[in-house]
Structures are given as C-alpha cells and as structure tokens.
Amino acid sequence: MTAAEIQFADSSSGYSWLALAQGVYNTQVDRWDDSTCGGGLRWQIYPYEAGYAMKNSISNGGLFQLAARLARYTANDTYADWAEKIFDWCASTPLLNNQTWNVADSTDVDNSCKTQGNNQWSYNYGTFLTGAAYMYNYTGKAKWKNAAEGLLNVTLNTFFPSEYGGNIMSEVLCEPAEACNDNEILFKGLVTGWLGLVALVMPSTYDTILPKLQGSAEAAAASCNGMGNNTCGVRWYPKKWDGWNGMEEEIAVTNVLASALVNTKQTAPVTSSTGGNSSSDPNAGTGDNTGDSNTESTITTGDKAGASILTIAFVGMWGGMIAWMVIGG
C-alpha cells in the first residue's frame, strides 16, 4: 500500500502494488469470523494453531488500517464501510475503548470476547491511529478526528515517557527489563513510520508529532556507537549503545531516522486522483482457499524462522519506502 501511495512504479509483469494490497484485503475480509463474538479476525487461521481462540488488536487493527488506506486511495466507499465495521466491532469488545482510547492486545473467544489481555504494545496503538487518521482525511467526519486525536494522545503519553524527556520513544513493556524479542524490537520502527504518515494525512497533528520523531531520531542515532562499527542498540533513551545488537535494531533506527525527515517534504501520500497510478484489481486474492484446509501439519523451527525473516524483511522494506517518500519521491 505504501508503494502505491508514494508512486513506486508498478512491475512490468505480475501484480501491481495496489493489486497486492487489494489481494491482502480480500483474503483477510474472507476470514472475518461472525460465528464467535459477533465478528473479528482470529489471530491464527487454523484451529490447531496456538492462539486460534484469540482475536487480537494487530490482526483487526491491521485490516482496519489497510481498508482505510484503500478507501482513501481508490475513493471506493466499500473499503471505508469495512474500515468502519472493523473499528466499531473492535470498540464493542475489550480490544478498543473509544472513551479512554486504551488498546488492549487481545481478547478470547472462549470467554465470548468479554476479557482482555491488556499488554500495552505500541504497534497496536499505531495501527488504529493511522487508520483513524486516514479515515478522517477521507471522510472529514468528527468520529475519526476524535479517534485519531484520542489515540495519538495515549500513544504519545504512553510510549514517549516523560522520564526520558517526553520526546524519545520507548517500548515500555519490554525495554526496562531488557526483555524485548526480535519482533518487539521492530515495533518502534513501525510506529514512528506510521506517525510520519499521520502527520501528513492529518496536518493538525504535525506540530505535535514532529518533535517526537526528531527527538527519537537523535537519541536513536546516538545509540549507534557500539562494537566500533556504529552498531545500534534496542533502547534509544540512554543515548548510547546499550550492548544489544542485531538486524532488528538497525531496521528500527533506520525507520525513525527516515520518518524524522518528514519535515523536508510535507506532502500527503497520493491517491488515484492526485498522481497515484498503480493499477487497480478489486478482485485480487478472491478465490484464495489457502485458509480453508483442515489438514494439520507440524510447525517446524524452520517455519518459525521463516515467519521472523518475513517480518524483518517487511519492516526493512517499509523503512526504505518511508525514506523514499520523505526525501526522494
């Protein structure tokens, strides 16, 4: 979706960027589960997978964000209707409180989605915030303005702690104990990238967001003085290397550095009517029955490693696209 919004050229063969996003959307909508809790996506596809009984924020928030961005890009209200349906369902469960704007991590179908796992992860907030900002840009409705502002306030108050000056992002659930796993290390990179998009599609937030991106970028850069070769750490607020190293640390820092350059090119992502030229295929992904198999297979170490590699590759590509958008598109 980002590639289409920043005018990356479509491939001369195969699917366009927009069609790929539409294909993901269609396969996810097909898995919307009305049989439990009145709707929502499950975390896993197959019943034998651990977490199948869970409906979580990142699955549903991710689809909400994608639907909102497709609505804005294509001006097709079908996507907007689905975005609103997903958001409203989440708000009817413990996942999303549309009064306090708390975003929980998960809820459980075995308890009729009445209980919550309330771990506070930044990417859960970021994906709902971004979707709400896009919906406000597309519709102009107060509902989405209120949602975006409420989610932004909680995101900034929670993940930019005042004890570190208020402008440096921290994954507060795992960083103090130095317990972040590889995926969790990437969350700050995703969220700072999304904050850059929010600042562009909802300009009233720009002056609030920019100091957070700049402060985080400065601290993140200062963390990259390890091992004699500019290795970056997990925690940015010490403003020095914290002894951690890995691909995920480098990707997260790259993302925040790119996002902080948003002030060099203050133009919103394009749409199909403002310069976007990625080819549309609203039927992409339909007829995909890969999620219908009941055949059980063993999940191997290789499968788990592959999933982690895909996550890393996605976030790395995201960082490159954000950099292209803000400085070179």
TrEMBL record:
The chain crosses the membrane at residues 305-327. Residues 268-301 are annotated as: Disordered. The keyword Amino-acid biosynthesis does not apply. One of its GO terms (biological process) is fungal-type cell wall biogenesis. It comes from the Eukaryota. Its EC number is 3.2.1.101. It catalyses: Random hydrolysis of (1->6)-alpha-D-mannosidic linkages in unbranched (1->6)-mannans. InterPro entries: 6-hairpin_glycosidase_sf (IPR008928), Glyco_hydro_76 (IPR005198), Mannan-1_6-alpha_mannosidase (IPR014480). It is an enzyme of class 3 (hydrolase). Keywords: Glycoprotein, Glycosidase, Hydrolase, Membrane, Signal, Transmembrane, Transmembrane helix. One of its GO terms (molecular function) is mannan endo-1,6-alpha-mannosidase activity. Belongs to the glycosyl hydrolase 76 family. This is mannan endo-1,6-alpha-mannosidase.
